[in-house]
Amino acid sequence: MASITIRNLDDEVKTRLRVRAAGNGRSMEEEARLILRDAVEQKPHARNLAAAIRARIAPLGGVELELPPREPAREAASFD
């Protein structure tokens, strides 16, 4: 097993980690291992382009576009 050292960790982050670990009945070290394991195992969610655009625009309230009136279809071109 490998080891890492995390330097310059904010006191607030360390406190929240300690509280979270205690709430889950684990040591801070075990809690950090589980958080890291979950973070690197998550696969990106496959979304289509329309869903990604909708997610970005929805918080802004959307946009109302004026739709042009429908017109009858044109006659097909004749190449006689």
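^ that was protein a. below is b, sequence first then the tokens
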Amino acid sequence: MRIEAYNQVASLYQANQVKKTQATDKTVASARDEVQISSVGKDYQVAKKAVNEAGDIREDRVAEVKAKMKSGEYSVNVEDFAKKLYDALKEV
């Protein structure tokens, strides 16, 4: 290891320590905390609220399937159902 490289790193480190100390002194003097939420955080809050307000059951889809079942148009492909059931049980 070269000593001059170490000296350069050490001097940078010491300079950063002085800046941090000065910054700490300034923040202590102001003694006021402030929180800022980014626009991404605000968008996330809006999306989370919308998801929480939405129901777990999609009533429109349920009504559509019920109507098809009553009219006799709803049919289940047994092979697809069996494959999906097997895949779901295989993961457990």
